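cache lookup: miss for this entity combination. No prior model stored, computing from scratch. Input as submitted by user K.M.:
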Amino acid sequence: MEYEAVIGLEVHAQLLTRSKLFCGCSTTFGRPPNTQVCPVCLGMPGVLPVINEKAVEYAIRMALATDCRINHRSVFARKNYFYPDLPKGYQISQYDEPLAEAGHIDTETPDGRTKRVGITRIHIEEDAGKLLHGEGDDEASSLVDFNRAGMPLIEIVSEPHISSPEEAVSYLKALRDILLYLEICDGNMQEGSLRCDANVSVRPKGTKEFGTKTEVKNMNSFKFLKDALTYEIARQIGLMEGGERVVQETRLFEPSTGRTRSMRTKEEAHDYRYFPEPDLLPLVLEDEEIEAIGVMLPELPAQKKTRFMEEYGLPSYDAGILTSSKRLADFYEECVGLFNEPKTVSNWIMSELLRLLKEHNISMEESPVGAERFTALLKLLKGGRISGKIAKEVLEEMFATGKDAEAIIEEKGLSQISDESELLQVVDRIIADNPENVERYRAGKTKLLGFFVGEVMKATRGKANPQLVNRLLKERLG
Amino acid sequence: MSITRRDVEHIAELSRLALTEEEVSLYTEQLKKILHYVEKLSSVDTRDIEPTTYTIPLQRRRRRDEVSPSLPPEEALKNAPERDKDCFKVPRIIE
């Protein structure tokens, strides 16, 4: 029998505020344990949480960017559970009246189609602390660091519209791109500022009813998300084909084995007894506030891609790559502003610059070659100072040394030879050195022109102006 | 609405409380009485009244996104039953 997977993702994004969601503690990552805590985020008796206005604004940005309906009144709720990472014994979240509902994100499927994935809801909540296992002096205890407790998060819950691990990755990438464009989350999955859980079930292909789902946790990279879902889907199909039933449970992905395993948590523990948070007033949003945030919304990845295609006449493929990150898109536009040849700039970024960034394992922000220097190189190429082949070498040198193109060309004597008399000398020498090939060329084997061009290039270490070499050879061999 | 021994055991489990048999009996009875008392409210007709979650009128109250000093770790850890360097120490959690 053929099966299909039904997947929904729950994504937690940490918002880039300076202070925590309900108190003034700093949100800086990686500080010594328990140095960013106060009575509010430690859950001391008698304290009152007050919501961070920036967190509200950022959550609204995301809701608008994903075409959600924003509720003018949303309510905070206590999600009660006992776990040592949760100092108050409850997490402040939103439950039956979330900030926003019913949005969507357009993603690209592996075969290049656009697929719309529904967003069920977006709500604001606080993060929990961090448990450090096996770092204490004795085996029988765990240590708790509350620096993360109270960090502002939004949870973005998708509809179960995703049908393969590849689609899940594509959805998460699109979502991450939007968060980065909005500048509300740094999207760092390793550090946990973007986290993803998945609800997965399988059913015979073509049927309507959902199968029993499991919740898969701990997938902190795109690769792990794909691996975990691939494994979990195969596991569930295996169970069904063996006549067994899928048990509804939470499963943990283990990167070392590539498998998911049952967390064996008792079903009983999932009774959160939500109730409205009496310490916080409902969040009331007026139309004016939402509209004011809406006007300030930057151009989003999908819009930018369309504009790049229209404004710069780029193919969909180029536009897609160039808008895959805001930094890259900004760099491209800066370059085109300095050197108005959109397709040339696109080609050189995609084939050379991105390759070099990858080779040097650095990000766009760390690139030693800025827009000014990059376009200076392209101008030299266009002006005939250097050939395309030399330009590639120069760019590599610019990466390695941090020098600009002009300096490298000077230093290494890489200027293109466009001086006719100088090149003629070389051409004549090559012709004199290869009498047999000259005979054959003159006898009609004109394909040999390539051989002569190659010899001239070799003799000039690639610096000869190719068009000029072609013309001179044809004249002399004529 | 009534409450059973099973309900009390369930809540105790969620709250990580170890109750003796006698305590379960005692709390079941006590909670029954409390719920029965609160149930009097159900006799009031509230069909057209919006639920009152908050007793003060709605008003906008938000913080500016500004960092204020945190507690020194010594202060933060002062009430910790157990600590290990600058961390709270708890019985080992197994997942």
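stored under new cache key. The longest strand of chain A covers residues 114-126.
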